Amino acid sequence: MTASQSTPEQRRNALIAVACATIIQTIAQLLIKQGTLSLGENPSLFDALRGMFTILPLFGGYALYGLFTIIMVFALRHGELSMLYPTMALSFVWVTVASALWLHEPVNAMEIAGIAAIIGGVALLGRGDKT
Amino acid sequence: MTTPLSSMLWIAGGGVIGSLGGVGLKAGANRLKLTIPALLSNWQLMGGVFAYLLSSVLFVKGMSKGQLSVLYPLVALGQIWTLLWARVFFREQITRTKVMALALIILGVLLIKFGSDQAALAPH
Question: Can you count the helices (H) and strands (E) in chain A?
Fold first, then answer.
C-alpha cells in the first residue's frame, strides 16, 4: 500500500493524525529538555543512556517520542511524505503556547505571526491540492 | 561573533540526514508488516529512526557555536530537502499548494525562533 493508492480521505486523515500527534511530540520534547537538566553539565554517554531509564522525565519523554514515531509511521502508510513531514513543524506552535500558559512567558507579535503562518501552512496542506 | 563554517556544515548535514530519516520511515511504512521478524528485517524503518537520532545530535552540536541568526534559517531550510526526496524516491508531486504551504511553515518557524529570542532578551 503506497500513498498513491490511498484515497484523498485517507491522506487527509493521515495529516490530521500527525497534526494531533505533534502535541505528543511537544510533551516529549519538553520532558526530555527538563530531564536533561538532571544530568548536569557534560554528562558522559553512559550517564545519558542510564538516565533514559532512571530519570523519570527522560524515560517518559523518550517513551512518548517512540509513541509519536509509531503514529507517524502508520500515518505515512497512507499519507505523503511531502505533506506529513512539514506538518511536524506544528510542535513549534505548541511549545510557544505551552510556555505562555504554564511558564507565563510573554508572547510577542513575531511569535503570534509565526503561529499564524505555521497553522496557515498546515491548513493549506490539509485543504488538499486543487492544482 | 562570527559563525564558524563547521557549525553551518553540522546543521546543513543534520538537515539532509534528518530529511533522509523521513525517507526511511516512509519506505519502512510502505512495507510495514506487524510481525516481529518483519519488523526486525525492516531496515528502512530502523535506518529512518537512526537518521533522526543522528540528525538531532548534529543539530545540538552545530547550535553550540555561532550566530543563531545564521543557523536558524539553515535548520528551517532542511525542510526543503523533504520535498525533493519525496519527489525523487516516491514520485510525490511538487504542487504549488505544497510549495506555498512549506514557505509559510518555514517563515512561521523562523518568526517563532527569532521572536522567542527577542522575548528572552527584552526586560520584563
Answer: 6, 0
